[in-house]
Amino acid sequence: MASLADRPFVKMNGLGNEIVVLDLRDGPMPVPPEEARALARPDVLPFDQIMALYPAAVPGIDAYVRIINADGSEAGACGNGTRCIALYEYGRTGRAHIRFESIAGLLDCNVSSSGITVDMGPPRFGWADIPLAGPVADTRALDIQAGPAEAPALAHPAVVNVGNPHAVFFVPDAAAVDLGRYGPELERHPAFPDRANISVAQVLSPDHILLKVWERGAGLTRACGSAACATAVCAARLGLTCRRVTVTLPGGDLTIDWREADDHILMTGPAELEFSGRLTPDMLGVTA
Ligand SMILES: N[C@@H](CCC[C@H](N)C(=O)O)C(=O)O
After folding, report:
1. How many angstroms is it from 74 CA to the middle of ligand 1?
2. Which of 91, 150, 193, 225 is the most exposed place for a label (fewest CB within 10 A)?
3. Architecture of the domain whose range is 8-121+271-278
4. For the complex shown, is ipTM > 0.85?
């Protein structure tokens, strides 16, 4: 099977969410899950997601993007990674308006001095869209004890799909929740047949939310852009906040605006280029 050995990579981050960009437009090939897992080892090139760029099928689109988690699984959305590839493409082309396509649809991005804005599209609240294991009438608060019985704050999450599945637990004190302990079980709860990204959110004011995230396929991360979007729309839908909020994650702040006019979610924040290099067989765990 083809290997990524010798392909160039760019290491970036979006608020400390660790991203590896692989521009495969010149020689498209799938990212082998076992090579992704080998690369993610702590002593190699630890990352939360690979953003792999492929030629777009449609004119006017810069690239088709596939998103690979550190465990080798594929995701439909990655907000922080999308800001990273927008910055990468801006550096390559000098164009501030960049458009990507993904399994979840179009990602329209704008790079400016105040940050990178990504149109993440509209949220989907239907139980089958998230997806959930069975019909649920009200996805604002699941009528199940989703979390462990000894952690009563972790029950009745709001759920939504923003290109990927999210469950958001609104709690009075986010710092008091040991998400590293409960995340693995919640991510794989039987209610979520495709697993889920798990957020613990504390509403600080009608325009400010504190958030920490256990990411599906990556674990605890310093930031998760799609989780910030998911949390903002769930909070607004529950009447806890307005539609434009600042979301504070361990890695920093994102601005989320759930636009009334077309139901789209706009996420604004930074991205950073760290270093670049070339993948070697050793890094990918490939033996001759
Ligand atoms: N880091 C991301 C989310 C990446 C995908 C997620 N772990 C999933 O499997 O759905 C972000 O910034 O949105």
Report:
1. 9
2. 150
3. Roll (3.10)
4. yes
